[in-house]
Amino acid sequence: MDLSKLKKLAIFTNKDLKLYYRLKYPEVYICRNKTKIITIEKGKYTLNENPFCYATQIINPSYISFLSALNFYEYSTQIPLKITVAIKKQKKELSQIKFIKINTKYFFGYNKIKYGGFDLFIADKEKLLLDCVSYQNFVQVNELTKLIKDNLDKEKIVTYLNRINNLNLIRRTGYLLELVGIDLYEHYTKINKINNYILLNKNLKKSKNYNHKWKLNINEEIYI
How many CA atoms lie within 13 A of 51 on its CB side? Predict the structure, then answer.
């Protein structure tokens, strides 16, 4: 069978097999062609060996972020075991893809690009920073050095921070950007009235170092 029609699809289903090839029992055809057709999950298949080609087409909407995006943009040499994809609802991870549920209000700031001839949705670099700072279980703070040094758009970050409206995220982001000469404090002087200090890295123990401007305990060294 000529698979040229399926090669144009990042993902195809049994319905597509019936539509293009008039197969009465597409499941039997899939079973007989396991060497050509890759099963992503039940009822979803691909001819693409590179999971980046279909990672953000399994669930709509979704976008690549965290360590996979850092590696994609060459901000990190660390290669994740699975592609990290942000989604709105919980979903079991697949053999090559890890789905990360994020708060609905964080679901913006990503672009559609072409990858391998298919649509790929990925966080822009400003949103990538905020994702990583917000969800620290998936990226260490010290992995963000190259990202914060890459001429980030200050106004876009302020717009994104205001949209998310999370004071702890503002404090951590403000400190990190100040390390590379980007000062957000004029937009968030209300931090001066805060009495409590939070950890820069939520996953590490408290240190003896403090940043009084952003009311942070600096418990992880960032080398700029």
Answer: 19
pLDDT at 224: 86
Rounded-to-integer distance, Cα 210 and Cα 215, Å: 7
Cis peptide leading into 26, omega within 30 of 0? no
Task: Decide if pLDDT at 189 tops 70.
Answer: yes
Distance CA 43, CA 12 (A): 8
Tell how strand 216-217 and strand 198-199 pair up.
parallel
Amino acid at 99: F
Instruction: Compute CA 198 distance to the chain's CA centroid, rounded to the nearest angstrom.
Output: 24
162 neighbors 155 (Cβ within 8 angstroms): no
Question: What confidence tens digit (pLDDT) does each residue in 122-180 have?
Answer: 999 999 999 999 999 999 899 999 999 999 999 999 999 999 999 999 999 999 999 99
| Residue whose pair of structure tokens reads 């600096």 in the numeric block | 218
- C-alpha–C-alpha distance, residues 60 and 134, integer Å: 22
**Would the CA dihedral through 193, 196, 201, 203 be positive or negative?**
negative
Helix (H) and strand (E) counts for the chain? 8, 10
